[in-house]
Amino acid sequence: MPLSSTLTRIVLAARPQGEPTADNFRLEQVPMPSPGEGQVLLRNHYLSLDPYMRGRMNAGRSYAKPVEIGEVMDGGTVSEVIESRHPDLTPGDMVLAHGGWQTHAIADGRALKRKLDAGIAPLTTALGVYGMPGFTAYVGLHEIGKPQPGETVVVAAASGPVGATVGQIARLQGARTVGIAGGERKRAYLQDELGFDVVLDHRAPDFAAQLRAACPQGIDVYFENVGGAVFDAVLPLLNDFARIPVCGLVAHYNDRALPAGPDRLPMLLSHILTRHLTVRGFIQHDFIQLYPQFLREMGGWLQEGRIKYREDQVDGLENAPAALIGLLKGENFGKVVVKL
Amino acid sequence: MPLSSTLTRIVLAARPQGEPTADNFRLEQVPMPSPGEGQVLLRNHYLSLDPYMRGRMNAGRSYAKPVEIGEVMDGGTVSEVIESRHPDLTPGDMVLAHGGWQTHAIADGRALKRKLDAGIAPLTTALGVYGMPGFTAYVGLHEIGKPQPGETVVVAAASGPVGATVGQIARLQGARTVGIAGGERKRAYLQDELGFDVVLDHRAPDFAAQLRAACPQGIDVYFENVGGAVFDAVLPLLNDFARIPVCGLVAHYNDRALPAGPDRLPMLLSHILTRHLTVRGFIQHDFIQLYPQFLREMGGWLQEGRIKYREDQVDGLENAPAALIGLLKGENFGKVVVKL
Prior knowledge:
The structure is a homodimer of 340-residue chains. By secondary structure, chain A is α/β, with parallel strands linked by helices. In chain A, 26% of the residues lie in helices and 24% in strands. In chain A, strand 10 (219-223), helix 6 and strand 11 (238-246) form a beta-alpha-beta unit. In chain A, helix 2 packs across helix 3 (161-172). The longest helix of chain A is centred in the middle third of the chain and has 14 residues, at 132-145. The first copy, chain A, starts with 5 loop residues before the first strand and ends with a strand. Strand 12 (278-281) of chain A pairs antiparallel with strand 12 of chain B, so a sheet runs across the interface.
């Protein structure tokens, strides 16, 4: 197939005010670039959509520098090398890349550290359970949550790729797991397929009371990727020495101002003090030294069927904006991957 | 000297509403108790006053169970064994005890693990730099703060026994130290005697701007024992991966209700997430396994004059309530010890 003379991409057209809308994105075609010395040209086959992308659409400080207006939206991809000027990469190689929201991308060969082997797990898992979200779950538990046998681990957004993996790893380690997700389909999947001990719907009017009933021994680990009302319900149930890995706050990504008072900041500090809590923010890259160990261990779990996962596949780059908007509202069911 | 037939003690007469007052305490005399098998009778010579005592005057959950109405106020003491029914203790032994706000106390011999040796440091240091407050500083840095050479460490209540020790240990470890204290006398002491790099007065109207100017490289460790306006000024200056050991919140101990809004709890969580912060509440006892190491290392520093300290001595048990009330307002200058 001769190489097209253009690539298709989606750029940030305007910064969102609150929830993103379709107008914040612009689909455009630009001339196909050529790789320089040491670079490769990639054909992106699958694009990962993740909650952190909402943060990068803002001008302010977040995990990483924001995407600038007119720049291509950032994102992880499963990509194929189609032209190589790097000695270690050959056309046909499948790699994990930061290809972004576009059909093709130029990348430094040195940055493409992970060639993908479909023999271990399907290629798209490199964007989910066997990639960044799975690694987030793994290191958040390994380095911060440290669940002990018999402890109670509560996971928000439990049907997402981070939460589902947190729950399953914690269970493998002997903890009791309480998942939180929206709707009966997700509840049934988490409880019946993934083995969560209890699954609660955060939209239930008596959610806080349900959570209390589901945690008769209190909460030892709360894996925080949501914030909002779930955090509020968790806080009074935390045991002494509880650990709270914080890797996301999707309930707040669209916030435009601080909520009304009273000011509970001193109350949170008091809880941290009197209950000996550890609250720690992280991204997976903070523990990148554990990546080889993660690949080994998670690869084994996947092949043995001890860790399961679910994908929510979207067809076509043009549908990525709507899929991201839906993901931020919890409308996805599993890891969102866009087939390009 | 024949043993008196009564002991004098101060009990909690009523729970404070906000700031404690003299009415919350009652001085009384009760018959002298006798030690049972395995117990000793102690003559308390020095009583430690500490901010945590405010928490124990409340009914609610704090570090430890509250003092009940009519119960003797809790507190660490330097005490002399005057009658022993325990084989390892002999009249005349000086020990570190939880003797409480009273002239004499009964203690289990097994609980008196530390005999005091005035040859290493004056006995009263066992209540301050060479005791609980010093150990709090030591473990908070050792296990949570972990200051690295060249990092900026900010210490609130820097003239108190915890803060002064934090600053000096951090300086020994090569960090740049910024102390916060009230008034020119304390400032001069911390800067000239203890070697803090900068000392600021939290009561200055432009305190937040002064703190920003004093931390051009941001803040890597904030040793929190105060809360309130100091925390608010610190928060925007925290660097990525900053650590916040939380061992006290004296600014909030008298709070009767949550402050007015907006609600900054989500903002604090966002900071924790996006800046990869570690916020961890602790008391020294959480790391009690480090106590022998602390005694060795701090003993050496004290004998070499590398760590200094200051005591604020109060005469007579009857003056303990006023001294605690003053301490909670920052009126003390150094470790408050009551000579009984």
